[in-house]
Design a protein that fits this description.
Length: 548
């Protein structure tokens, strides 16, 4: 039997077990196109989607290496079986966004759960991921599933898994799964037999809007009820599911309704007005910034499509600019600390080290974790706040133990309104922090590869030819996190480079930081020096990776 014959045999076996007529027709068309479609067929059967620490994510297409009803059925059966084997009690709560296939995947998950004898609770419609994370805790669920691909391209979808308190413990109650749960669930999925033998029950219980109302009420509790509320906000959900919930939260908190980018306000799985539905991407916030200019808004806010991230733009002397995730993270931490919120403030090893200095100066516990909110929220039972530089913020860990773009937007609005009431701005507050602690300039070197082996080569190159200096300063610390994580950290007295492969994309990433002291109160001059240094650090780091 040739390799192609074997591939065709596997595809025909898949066809016989696929429960979805549409994907069966899609795969049959690929088979009919052979041999011209051999590469496409091989890619679809290159292996099952990897069930990682956040679940599944991949392109919507037929075959095991895609998101489709067959893959979701198998994943749901494996998850439900794993929960049963560990004696987990409580319902499975299921949420979904507005992407293609999301509702069907959520409903299939519910039917698999009820078919196995477990109660299934479906959220009442397309809703933000933090609402699902909240529901896992609120409803004492055994686990939660969120069908979303977050800010991925339109052709993708995904399947995130959260654990309840029974299996997640105090730190992981309502949080995304971490090892070894991911490996165990993956093994349970692989052991699922024929999909035609998976029993399917009813849809379970479709929750009403009381759950959403409860989330909105809890979201507003992150604010000082007596704080200023005079603020004009321009907002976009980037064609995602955040608009209604954010508007309700702002109204409940006493803010004026944000001005919305009309052409991006309603959910649209095609994301027609953006090249990439991620507020970090160049151009993604152009429309909301233009709206802010037209309406005279004080700030501009964007959520990503599943509203677990929050982006912020502010006006300044040179026009509007988007704040980095590190800037927003430090601003929110500083604001909470000034309000007297005690507890642990945590971020990741690739985020700015400025947060550690705020905590040290103010006598508060600090935590640094590996990348990802699944680790941030496990920084300690005393967690008060966590953030990652990729626009994710956890401002109410007792309510949502994950990043939450709705509560983050509320807290940004409270900060901006308070500053406005005192005739100040967010830009002014950033300058005050810089004057006190110095300028912490961050940047990222991101290299996309076609061949994943190039990433291994680059990591090997920097490990075997580790530079002795950066920016003309000696490297005083080299920290290699292998075998626990493929991360290398280089430090000098005033600079840091953290190098690692991306966990979600075929990219090699280096997270860079330069610390520049402020001399004689001249913050702009310090920012200029820091910007020049971080550019030079990009060049030196690229050379250290064997990239020119």
């Amino acid at each position: 039997m040739t390799e192609l014959d074997d591939l065709v045999a596997r595809a025909r076996a898949w066809l016989a077990d696929d429960p979805d007529e549409t994907s069966r027709a899609e795969l049959a068309q690929v088979l009919d196109g052979l041999p011209g479609t051999a590469a496409d067929l091989a890619d679809r059967f290159a292996g099952p989607l990897t069930f990682g620490t956040a679940g599944l994510r991949g392109p919507l297409r037929a075959g095991p290496n895609g998101m489709n009803l067959a893959v979701v059925t198998q994943a749901a059966a494996g998850l439900v079986g794993w929960l049963a084997a560990r004696g987990a009690t409580g319902p499975l709560v299921i949420g979904y966004d507005a992407r293609h296939g999301s509702r069907a995947f959520a409903e299939r998950t519910a039917r698999v759960a009820t078919g196995a004898g477990r109660e299934a609770l479906l959220l009442p419609g397309p809703l933000p991921t933090p609402v699902l994370a909240y529901a896992v805790r609120k409803l004492s669920a055994a686990a939660g599933v969120m069908v979303t691909a977050s800010h991925n391209p339109p052709q993708d979808n995904g399947y995130k898994v959260y654990l309840g308190a029974g299996l997640g413990g105090d730190l992981g109650a309502g949080a995304q799964i971490v090892p070894p749960a991911d490996v165990e669930i993956s093994a349970a999925i692989a052991s699922v037999g024929a999909l035609t033998d998976v029993p399917l029950g009813g849809l379970g219980v479709v929750l009403d809007d009381d759950l959403v109302e409860s989330y909105v009420d809890s979201a507003t509790r992150v604010l000082d009820p007596d704080g200023p509320r005079d603020l004009a906000v321009a907002y976009t959900p980037l064609h995602g599911v955040g608009a209604k919930v954010l508007a309700a939260a702002f109204a409940r908190a006493g803010f004026a309704r944000p001005h919305e980018v009309a052409e991006q306000a309603e959910p649209d799985p095609l994301f027609p007005t953006v090249a990439f539905p991620n507020p970090e991407e160049p151009g993604a916030m152009d429309r909301v910034i233009e709206l802010a200019k037209v309406t005279g808004a004080d700030i501009a806010i964007a959520n990503d499509p599943d509203a677990d991230r929050c982006a912020v733009a502010i006006p300044g002397p040179l026009g509007w600019r988007m704040l980095s995730g590190d800037e927003v993270g430090v601003l929110l931490a500083d604001h909470l600390q000034r309000r007297g919120v005690t507890g642990r403030y945590a971020t990741t090893i690739v985020s700015s080290s400025l947060l550690s200095q705020l905590c040290a100066r103010r006598g508060l516990p600090y935590g640094a974790t590996l990348t990802g909110f699944k680790w941030i929220v496990r920084a300690g039972t005393d967690l008060a706040f966590g953030y990652e530089e990729a626009l994710g913020y956890c401002v109410a860990p007792d309510q949502v133990r994950d990043k939450d773009g709705i509560t983050a937007a509320l807290l940004v609005a409270e900060l901006a309104a308070g500053l406005k009431a005192s005739l100040s701005t967010i830009g002014d507050r950033l300058d005050e922090i810089a004057a006190e602690f110095g300028v912490y300039a961050t940047d990222q070197l991101s290299v996309r590869v076609d061949d994943l082996s190039d990433i291994d080569k680059a990591m090997t190159y920097i490990r075997t030819k580790t530079p002795g200096s950066l920016l003309d300063e000696p490297v005083i610390s080299v920290e290699d996190l292998q075998p626990d994580a493929d991360v290398l950290i280089l430090r000098t007295e005033s600079a840091r480079a953290v190098v690692r492969p991306s966990g979600t994309e075929p990219k090699l990433k280096a997270y860079l930081e330069v610390i520049e002291p402020v001399v004689d109160g001249d913050v702009p001059a310090a920012r200029e020096r820091a910007a020049a240094s971080v550019r030079a650090l990009r060049t030196e780091t690229a050379a250290s990776l064997g990239i020119w």
